[in-house]
Amino acid sequence: MSTAINNQSTEQYWQALREVMDPEFPISVVDMGLIRKIETKGSTVVVTMTYTSTGCACMTWIESDITERLLQEKNIDEVSIHVVWDPPWTVHDMTEEGRNKMKHWGVSS
Q1: Which residue from 72, 69, 32 is spatially nearest to 53, judged by alpha carbons?
Q2: Does residue 94 carry a pLDDT above 80?
């Protein structure tokens, strides 16, 4: 995974996003490796993320789910999502848990 989940101040948001599933696979957006970075600025959570492809049909849905989930967190009034394409997503961005789930579903990673 490209960003380690060890920043104490954002750990709760990483954990919250483990509840947001990729619409195509029953794998969280965190385990898919879509979330690159999470920062806080006052009562705003800033999420830097990517997608598996530029043609992902679920972008709006995923961003809406991320926003909805993070707004449930205490002291969060706003969510800002920044989509980046560099570096491009690869299967190496997935967590070990994500890769294991893909294998379970018969998708080679």
Answers
A1: 32
A2: yes
**CATH code, domain with 64:** 3.30.300.130
Rg of the chain over all Cα atoms, to the nearest angstrom: 13
User: What confidence tier does 104 reach under pLDDT thresholds 50, 70, 90?
Assistant: confident
SS3 44: strand
Is residue 82 one of the residues assigned to a domain? Answer: yes
Asked, for residue 2, whether it belongs to a domain, the answer is no
Identity of residue 97: E
Residue 13: closest CA among 23, 25, 3, 24: 3
Mean pLDDT of 21-27: 89
Q: Does 108 have pLDDT greater than 70?
A: no
Tell me if 103 sits within 8 A of 27, measured CB to CB. no
The end-to-end CA distance of the chain, in Å, is 14
pLDDT higher than threshold 50 for residue 5: no
By residue range, what is the domain housing residue 21? 11-94
